[in-house]
Design goal:
Blueprint: E1 5-7, H1 10-17, E2 26-33, H2 39-50, E3 58-63, E4 66-71, E5 81-85, H3 92-103, E6 114-122, E7 125-133, H4 139-147, H5 165-168, H6 174-202, H7 206-226, E8 243-247, E9 251-252, H8 253-263, H9 267-286, E10 295-302, E11 317-324, H10 331-346, H11 350-363, H12 366-377, E12 382-388, E13 395-396, E14 399-407, E15 416-423, E16 426-434, H13 441-471
Parallel strand pairs: 5-6, 10-12, 12-15
Antiparallel strand pairs: 1-4, 2-7, 2-14, 3-4, 6-7, 8-16, 9-16, 10-11, 13-14, 15-16
Helix pairs in contact: 1-11, 7-11, 8-9, 8-13, 9-10, 9-13
Length: about 475
């Protein structure tokens, strides 16, 4: 291993090996700005803040059964920034078509795995369409990285983002690397043993609690493996690899919070319930029988401390399988079931189990990972992400960000990605869907808004009734 190579972690390698023609493993973002951005200033901002993260200057190399990050000797920012223009007076439909084409296309593995397409003349401003491979980092990290390029005012003072030693490290060689690893492992073992003995002294029942936790993890692993496959619906079909992307006009975050308070739940519960209602309306509109036991979506669950420095990249999240009660016609009852399902998952170890499985698969042979991936992807019909963004508008190189959208990739035979992102008092909702799946993305967007409106009306009516009962 050369001095300029860094071993890829097992979890990141697992995401790298999920790449396939049907599902490129890219996290994609569409960032709409209110005015054009000067290319020179954009490149300067990227150099000052984005390229400080060394991963974006490194390509992936494989030597035998090992995978490394290696500095790209031919790196140049112009290889990663491309200028495009929409045809004619291109609007939202043309932008969605272009986004669909690009998200269906894999990145160039000869170079660092990211691309930015600068789209000119969109609604008086511009658009940045960003694609970054999942092996570099998880969606939450990359959203934070992209937001680190922005400022709270149009006229910032550019300054470099300091990066941690992990981002900058040159991999040690030979005996130095072996000694460092042995010292680290030995110290970790000593620290863990000390913590264990201290816990026993302070809490005599600690070994029993530890054994109980281990048992609960084993039970969650067994439940995950034995859970039935998804019902045979139009949402599960052989994939073509061609994506359709669409997004809705934003919802009011204040209205979402009003709905959540009225139902004594969370904004996340409200949005998941709206997604369940959207899928129910899709089944009704297409005439297909609604699954009697709901459909499951894979939801990324962050395992990274939110205060952990932004420069720490890599993947630190697990997946939980959330059942959406699409068979429930009453919006309040649908909400209660979503709320109950989420509360149960929060008490489980499913996210930690799936993260450990990804770590295990990344260390084993490729065939093992693909078989396990096939098994797990049969247990979900879609991937759904819900990421909180800035509460106030942000600016990039002087231009105001007016609408951001993010999508994480799907894996295996999952062909639908649902994205929820809150920003500056709004909630953005988008979808990416394989062309072979018989669902119109624009219609699903309408279903989501209608489902939320139905839930909000029911929640306010229910709250008024409760208030009247309390007063009588």
């Amino acid at each position: 291993m050369t001095r300029r190579q860094t071993p890829m972690s097992a979890v990141d390698r697992s995401w790298l090996r999920m790449e396939c023609p049907e599902n490129p493993m890219m996290i994609s973002a569409v960032l709409v700005f209110d005015q054009p951005i000067a290319l020179k200033r954009l490149k300067r901002t990227l150099d000052e803040r984005f390229l400080t993260f060394r991963r974006f200057r490194q390509r992936v190399v494989t030597e035998g059964d090992r995978t490394y990050w290696q500095d790209d000797p031919l790196f140049h920012i112009d290889n990663h920034i491309h200028v495009l223009a929409l045809p004619g007076d291109g609007g939202k439909q043309e932008l969605q078509t272009l986004t669909s084409d690009l998200t269906s296309t894999s990145l160039d593995f000869r170079r660092p795995l990211w691309q930015i397409h600068y789209i000119e003349n969109y609604q008086g401003g511009c658009v940045l369409l960003v694609r970054i491979h999942h092996c570099i980092a998880d969606g939450i990290s990359l959203v934070r990285v992209l937001l680190s390029l922005t400022d709270n005012s149009p006229e910032p003072r550019l300054s470099r983002v300091s990066t941690s030693s992990q981002s900058k490290t040159h991999a040690p060689q030979g005996l130095r690397q072996l000694a460092s690893r042995a010292l680290h492992n030995g110290q970790t073992a000593i620290d863990q043993a000390g913590l264990f003995l201290k816990s026993i002294r302070n809490e005599p029942g600690y070994p029993f609690k530890l054994a109980t936790t281990a048992g609960n993890i084993a039970v969650d692993l067994l439940k995950l493996g034995l859970s039935p496959a998804e019902p045979d619906t139009c949402l599960k079909t052989p994939l073509s690899g061609r994506k359709h992307v669409a997004w809705a006009d934003p919802l009011s975050l204040a209205e979402v919070k009003v709905c959540a308070r009225a139902l004594r739940g969370t904004a996340n519960d409200v949005l998941l319930c709206a997604a369940a209602g959207a899928l129910q309306r899709h089944f009704l509109a297409t005439g297909e029988a609604t699954p009697e036991c709901g459909v499951r979506v894979a939801v990324p669950f962050n395992l990274r401390p939110m205060r952990q420095p932004i420069e720490t990249l890599g993947n630190q999240f697990g997946l939980v399988l959330v059942t959406l009660p699409v068979e429930e016609t009453d919006p309040i009852m649908r909400f209660r079931q979503v709320q109950e399902n989420m509360n149960r998952l929060k008490r489980s170890y499913q996210a930690q189990v799936t993260y450990s499985l990804l770590d295990l698969f990344g260390r084993g042979p490729d065939v093992l990972e693909r078989r396990a991936l096939s098994m797990l992807s049969n247990k979900a019909s879609a991937v759904l992400t819900n990421v909180p963004g800035p509460k106030e508008p942000v600016y990039l190189a002087g231009a105001k960000l007016t609408q951001p959208m993010f999508w994480v990739p799907q894996s295996g035979n999952i062909g639908i990605g649902l994205s929820i992102f809150s920003y500056a008092g709004t909630v953005q909702f988008g979808i990416t869907i394989d062309k072979n799946i018989k669902a119109d993305p624009a219609s699903v967007m309408g279903h989501f808004r209608d489902s939320f409106a139905e839930l909000l009306d029911a929640a306010l009516h229910n709250s008024e009734q409760n208030t009247a009962r309390a007063a009588s």
